[in-house]
Design a protein that fits this description.
By secondary structure, the chain is α/β, with parallel strands linked by helices. Helices cover 40% and strands 16% of the residues.
Length: 316
């Protein structure tokens, strides 16, 4: 069994102004002359955590982490204006140029897998490799499953708490009902909705409930950006054409790739990872038999660390 590398601190941080009013928080860790890897966090709106630095050998990798628009330490917090998939892809290119990186490995889970795939399909010549977890293709049926009906049958107890902020008359379209509250002027209602939305995700993220994961999702700072930005994306079909990621999967065929998927992932069910694997058969496909969605699951950690250790050899 593989484990995370020891805690590591950034050797430099950057503030990169992109489209007004957004300023991105970026940090670099590890070996400044190593293989560049970009950690692409989930959500959208979740932000990076300290343990995210620890999936990579710091002697081998130049580790770059960034908080996407409105998330984490990027400002303004929870901002929706100018927050689109295309804008985030442009931000990643701006960062690559700012950091003087020719090609990099992308490492992303959940929404981070979506954004990594869209970036790679847009700029395949700038991607050395892809390591992806908990595949999310942003299709309407995936949103329906998790936020309307499906996952509710597996976690009916947690679902009751998710329902509470929404009047019964509005529950036929939970995403739209939440969006109304999350962009509303009532600050108390906005935060109550944000925490209920975010904690629903935290309670379903792991095979066995994890207090650290729940603490992250329950934090008011994280909950507000995660709920507002996720809801904003989902109400807008994630700013993607229908089946866009699968449609453009042929553009990935020359990029070394690894897909890691928990068998019991309730947030991003395995169907999506399987569909991606069928469309991109060149990628390695690893199913973790005893894991859910979170990158903290022991089996997921093991598979991801193995992937980051082997990627430099594959590229060499």
């Amino acid at each position: 069994m593989e484990y995370l590398y020891p805690d590591i601190r950034p050797y430099v941080s950057h503030s990169l102004a992109v489209e007004v009013p957004h300023v991105l928080h970026i940090e670099e860790c590890g070996n400044p002359d190593g293989l560049p890897v970009l950690f692409v966090h989930g959500g959208p709106g979740s932000g990076c955590e300290e343990y995210h630095r620890c999936f990579f050998d710091p002697e081998v990798y130049r580790i770059v982490l960034f908080d996407q628009r409105g998330a984490g330490k990027s400002t303004p917090h929870a901002e929706l204006a100018g927050n689109t998939t295309q804008a985030l892809v442009a931000d990643m290119e701006a960062m690559r140029e700012h950091l003087n990186i020719d090609k990099w490995v992308l490492f992303g889970g959940s929404w981070g897998s979506t954004l990594s795939l869209v970036y790679a399909q847009t700029h395949p010549d700038r991607v050395a490799g892809l390591i992806l977890r908990g595949i999310f293709l942003c299709r309407p049926r995936e949103i329906e499953w998790f936020y309307q009906e499906g996952a509710s049958r597996i976690f009916p107890d947690a679902w009751q708490e998710y329902l509470k902020p929404i009047a019964e008359s509005e529950r036929s379209d939970m995403v739209r009902a939440y969006y109304k509250r999350l962009i509303g002027d009532d600050e108390l209602a906005r935060m109550a909705a944000a925490k209920a939305w975010s904690i629903w995700e935290g309670k379903t993220a792991t095979l066995k409930q994890n207090k650290n994961v729940l603490g992250h999702f329950g934090s008011p700072h994280t909950a507000l950006s995660l709920a507002r930005i996720e809801c904003h994306y989902f109400i807008n079909n994630s700013f993607l054409a229908e089946d866009q990621v699968l449609r453009d999967a042929h553009k990935l065929k020359d990029i070394p790739g690894v897909i890691v998927q928990g068998r019991y992932d309730v947030i991003c069910p395995m169907e999506s990872a399987w569909s991606l694997h069928q469309a991109w058969p060149e990628a390695e496909f690893h199913v973790v038999a005893d894991a859910g969605h979170s990158a903290t699951e022991p089996g997921i950690v093991d598979a991801l660390i193995r992937a980051t250790r082997l990627m430099p050899q594959r590229l060499a």
